[in-house]
Structure formats: structure tokens, C-alpha cells
Amino acid sequence: MKPLLAVRDLTTVFSLPGGGVARPVDGVSLDLFPGETLALVGESGSGKTTLALSLLRLIPEPPGHIDPASRVELDGTDILRLEPLALRRVRGGAIGMVFQEPGSSLNPVMTVGAQIVETARLHAGLDRRAARRRAGALLADVGLPDTERRLDQYPHELSGGMQQRVMIAMALAGGPRVLIADEPTTALDVTIQLQILDLLADLKQRLGLAVLLITHDLGVAARVADRVAVMYGGRIVESAPAARLFERPQHPYTEALLRAVPRVDRTGERLPVVRGQPPPATDWPAGCRFHPRCPHAWERCRDAEPGLIAFGEQVSRCWLMDEPGRRTP
Amino acid sequence: MLGFLARRLGAAALVAFGVATITFFLIHLAPGSPLLGSGENPYVSAEAVEQMRRNFALDRPLHIQYVRYLYNLIRGDWGTSFTLHRPVLDAFRDALPNTLVLAAAALMLDFLLGVLVGTVQGMRAGSRFDRICSVVTLTLYSIPAFWLGLMLVLVFGQDLGWLPVSGVVDPVLYPTRSVLGKLFDRGMHLILPAMTLGLIGAAATARYQRAAMLEVVRQDFIRTARAKGLSEPAVALHALRNAILPTITLLGLALPMLFSGAVLVETVFAWPGLGRLAFEALLRRDYPVVTGAATFVALAVVAGNLVADVLTRLADPRTREPA
Amino acid sequence: MSRRLRAGLLAVGVLYLIALLAPVLAPYDPAAQLNLAGGRLLPPSLAHPLGTDALSRDLLSRLLFGARLSLAIAGLAVVVAVTLGTAVGLAAGLAGGVLDGILMRSVDAALAIPRVFLLVAILALWEQGGIGALVLVLGLTGWFGTSRLVRAEVLSLRRRDFVLAARALGLPGWRVALRHVLPNAVAPIVVTATLGVGHTILIEAALSFLGIGVRPPLPSWGNMIADGQAYLATSPWQAMAPGLAVVATVMIFGVLGEALRDTMDPRSR
Questions:
Q1: Among A329, B36, B135, C99, which lies 20 to 30 A Cα-Cα from A46?
Q2: Has residue A221 got a pLDDT over 70?
Q3: Chain A interface, mutation test: which of B123, B215, B221, most A Cβ atoms within 10 Å?
Q4: ipTM
């Protein structure tokens, strides 16, 4: 099956005021297939949001800049090469996006209905009444009944969870095939988080969407993902079907992340931490970018950066895939 | 909304009452006031002093005078001008429309031009357009209004002879014109004074609006608007609907400010408005007119604040009481 | 130091230097009526770079002395206003409670009244005032905004640890105010003061134009423009030169104020 969204060698560069250059996204490639949820996992500051924004070319042009060698292909068409008019049709039309802070991501002086209607009219070409009906239907779909009243409410009159539902409705108003959700639940209460995640899974199922879910929370990934990709050092370091990744992680970084998750059944222990700090995007280490913090590292790791080495459906950017004997217990 | 209005109108009445009271006591206690009977005031003739004594019932105790004064105010008797020999309210009735017309025209120019330029500057911050506009607005903002008026008179009135430079209408030709001609005449006379006040106001508004836009454009919902596929003008509209809020407040407060600017501009252009009236009365110690003008300005201030409040409530849903 | 800041500081320095040296720089006595017979309303020439006025006084000299007066008045008035505003703002912010409430309500009421109107009213009635009265009244009507600003700064600084520490050590209120809070609030005060000088010059020019600010025969840019108004047709430079001086001066203070704001408060970028 061909991927719906194919990202190849995506590199986004920022020029810094002091003069330096940062590459928070440095050669990322991934595939998104219809009907699946791909979770992109990484620490805060690992470039995940930059990646998401780059897909729709929402990076501010100075100081940011997407490397021309990058390719982001939606059903064969490279988004990065589109003319502004065609790009605007993709945004909100073919690809919908949901952001982290629903409270500040909605226009405070427009009603919720008006904002959804705006998207519907723009991408589905509906007249005002039809668009309002569609908006009402979408609100019902995302679990906000009493739609007539809701449509005329303002964002500040809604709770965080409800605001996020509105954002999702708005993202779906244009009938997209891909939904990018950037940390959609991070700003919400835990109980609401689960509701929103279940909603996303349900919508994906019903509408046949391809969902790219960006999160730093492994628990979130475990709950909804079909496949998981782990990001570190501006690159993808491991990618596998969800169950596989959680049972048998291959990359030392993934292992460390999983070990650091607190467990209810093992209290009183010190949480194992990954020693060291993530490297700055201005100065990626030579060779394997994780090697300064990796317990298994040897000379090869310092000298050369591994490519993505496959093992069945799992890929890992680690020399241990080549030389499993080097893995220290 | 109705309850809110009622409360505010009540507060406004209280303020007006307060101003009238303060004015009354100032008049009666300020040094150099003819009412204190210290004689020798070169501006005020003996008969005028007598008239004032009678009007203000100076032979009666102070509290009776106060009540009398308030009663007169409400009845519409704001006293009689010494120098113009007419009731104060009459003089105001003639002068006020002129000032209002000038203020309205200036305000329109101010708001429309200022918001437009400020918004475009905000959306295109850092561009050449932005930098040029910033220099222009800084310059305009540094020009004294009365001097700008004079320079406009010099260029447009004298050198080019395009526009009339004084008065509201042409004293000779106006009565002979048709209705349309009269309107045209009034319009032509309005251009220079309105431009003087309006351009400087627009410069200030543009700077303010630009700053407001910069604040708004940084925010998340602008990113959302772009992610939805909206065109740049549509995104600008989203931003504008938020950025305009502080400017609207400014607008309400501009009303009293325009009266001050009016004093200067009316002097330069011989515009028979309230500002000029009040100022000349001040110089000639025409107290009834002065106190009337003070009361009036206070009312304008309160009205301005009220308007700003109401407009803000209408424009910003977050300030409204929950439905 | 940014280029704008450097340029602004230099320009202001030059302005005040010119003002200071006016007696030396001026070719003539600004009050001297040089040649009532044939020297009135002369156009600019080598002898009189800006010409002469209706009383055959040299305009360049008057302009220079006008600069002296206007800059001095504005400077002093701003000092008065800033001092007063800072004091009130500190008091209100640190004391809190009823005092704060009363002070701020009064400030709000005062801010609502158009300043120019108040100034016109007071100065038109107070004829014998002179320059001192002018400075005083300008200062007394100009402190309200500063007090609000300082109070806001104080309120935000109050909660910071170093203030709590000072108070816990038992330092008296005024000491905490002066030595701990104030130094941190300096930045917005300096910006406001600088922009304030520009505003004050504009207001003083307006008042002098109306005849109630700097009164003749003392030269001020404002009253020079008023003088020039009558001869606009024949000798336009009379009104133009002082006006340009005002514009240039106010712009310089404006640029300096903004450069200071950008430097001291990177948040506002």
C-alpha cells in the first residue's frame, strides 16, 4: 500500500540572532498510511512541533527555512513545491491540524460556530446555511450536543476539553484525509485526556483518516497508536508497530524512555534516568547522536552515524542492529 | 446591557453634579473673582458685576445660592455672557455644532486612516513600507497642530489657492448658493481644519494600532487561521478584530481630547466653535461662559468614557456579562 | 549600544549644548530692536540667517534663546512630574489598601480631564505667573501617568523575593522603596520621562502660541509662531523656522525614547 503522506529528508533550519544556525529537524523521513495512527514520540524540545508545522509550511520564513532537498508528498504531490493558492487548499482541506493549547488557538472574539463555518465554507464550498448545518453536525460528532446553543458561544465560555473538541471539529470541517494532532491532550486534565484520545480513535475509524499524533507522553502513544516513531537529535531513531515497540524496543533511547516510565506496581525504587542532557539543535554530536549518553556505545558509534537498519517491521538507527553482541546487559 | 447603561448614566449624572458643585465653589472662592466684590477687575464692567450679583443672589446665604445655581443649571439657565450679551446656552448652541462637525470629520479621518495604516504595518512588520510609515507617523506626531494648520494654510490657501482658510462658510457668496452649493462650500471650508486635527490623530492611532497588531499576530490563533488555509487578508481580519479593541477604547477617550485640539485649530482657522469661544471667554474673564464650558467638557469626558465602555462591550465578547 | 540610541543621545546632547550656549552662539541680543526704520521683516541673509521680525529683532537669536527656554522649561517640568509621579506611585504600590485606593481613584479622575484644557484654564486666569508658574503647572498636571506606571512596577516587584527578604530583615518601608524597589523600576520611568520632554515641548509651544505660556517679550518657539502668523503671506519663514525647530526637537526625543525602550525592555520588541 502506498503511503498517503510521505516525508523524505525533511530538514528545517533556523538562523539565530547571535549568528548561529539550528537544525531541530534534520533529515526526517516517515510514512503515514490511511486508516492508521502514527505516534511521533520525543522529549519536549525535540523538534516534534517544528516538524508538524513544517509539513504545512507554517514555519515563519525568516528566521526559519525548509531545506529545498526536503520532500513532503501528499498522495504524490509535493506540498513544499506548491503555489500559495494550492497550498492554502491543502491547509485545512486535505490536511487538518489540531494544536496543543485550544484556549489560545481559537479566536477569542469570534463565536465557535463562526470559526467552524469559516473552514467549511472555504474548503467545502458550502453556503452559509449549509455550512452552519455541517458545523452543527461536526459538533455533535465530536461529542458536543446542544449544538444550536454551542455554535453561538465564544471560546472563553467553554472548558478546555470542550475547546479541544471544537478545534477537532474545525480541523475536520474541510473534509481532510490527514489529521495532524500536536500534543492535543497535554494541556488538559487527565480524565479529559482519555476522552479526547478515544474521540480521536473513534473519528479515525469512522472517517478513515490518517492520523499523525505528536506527543511526549508514552502512555498516550500506547493508548491510541498503530505505529510509533521515536524522535531524537532531529531524526527518527526508531520506528515500529506499537505493540512491538513497547514489548521489544531496539534503540537504547527508546529503552531508556520506557524504563523511565513510573510503574504503579514497583514503588520505592529510584527512577532510572538517562544520564546527560539532550544535545542542542545547534550542535549535533558527530557519529550517532545518542552515543554520548548511550550505555552501549563503542568506537563505531563515535565515528559513523548509523542509518535506519531494519529488522522485520521495526527499524532502528543503531549499530547494535548490526552487531547485537555489543549490547551490554 | 440595559442595566449596565442605566448604572453608567446614573454615574454620569453624579459626575455632572459633582462638577457643577466644584465649579460653583471655585467661582465663589477663587481669587480675582468679581463675585468676591474686590472691585478693580478691568474686564468686567460695573453693570456686569451687578447683574452677576443679582443672578447669583449674592445677598443670600451661600447654601441658598448653591441651590439656586443648581436649579438654574437644570432649568437651562446657564447665565448670561458678559462680553457677548447673550445667554450662555444660546452661544453654545451656535458654537457647538461647528465644533462637533470638525471633531467628527477629524475623528473619521483619524480612525480610518490610522487603523488602515497601523494594521498593514503590523501585518508587514519590518518591511520597507513599515519603516517608511514609522518615520512618517513619528514626524506627524511631533508636529504641533497649530503649526501644521498654519503650514497647510500657507500651501493650500495662499500658494495654491485651492482651499479656503478661515471660517465655516464664505461670508459673501454662501447665502446666494443653492443647497448643493452650500454643502460644497461648507465641505471645502472643513477640509483644512479637519485635516490638521485628523492627520496628527491618525499618526497617533497608526502607532497604537501597529503595536496592538504586533501583539495579536504573535498569538496562537493566528497560526490556527493560517493552518486552516485562510488567505493573508482573511488572517489580517482575524487579527484586526482583536487588535482593534484597544483602539476603540482610545476612540471613546478621543472625544474630550478633540476639544482641546479644537481650541488651537479653531484659533488658527477662525472657526467659530466652542473651543475658541471658551478660550476667548477665559481671556476676557467671562465667567458664565467659562463655567458653562467647564461643565460641558466634564460632560464630554464622561460621555467619552461611556461610549468607549459601551463600544468595548459590543466588540469584545469576553467583557460581557454571561448570557 | 544600538545606533539609534547613540544617535539619540548625541542629538539630545547637542540640543542642550546649543541651549546652554545660546548667549554665546546668538549673533544678536534677542530682545534688541535693531533697526526699526528699515530693518523690519527682512528676508534671510548673511547678516540675519533667518531674517528679522516685525520689530526688527534677529530671528536666529530669538530661535536660539527660544530653544534655551523651551528645553529648560520642558526639562524642569518633567523632573517635577516624574519625581511627584514616582513618589505617589511608590507610596500607593507599597502601602496598598485604602491609601492606594484613594490615590489611584484620584489619579484616574485626573487623567480623565484633558490636560490642555486644565492648563489653559489655569494659565489664562493666572496672569502674573511667569515662567516659574508655567513649569510648576506643567509639572503638576503631568505626573498622573507616571504614578500609574510606577505603581504597576511596584506591584509586580513587591512579590519578588528580594523585596520580601528586605522587609523580613525589618528594613523600614521607605528604605525598601528607595534602595530596593526603585532601582528596578527605573527603566520605564526613564522612557516615560524622555517621551515626556517631547510632549511637554509641544504643549508649551501651544500655550505660548495662545499667549498664555511664555509671554512676550521673552522668545519661545510657540509665541514666535504666533508672531509669524500675521505675516504668513509676506514672510513665511518667520513662522516656519520655529515650527521646524519644534518638530525636529520633539522627534529627537521621540527617537531617543523609543531607542531607550527597546534597549531597556527587550520584552517590548
A1: A329
A2: yes
A3: B221
A4: 0.86
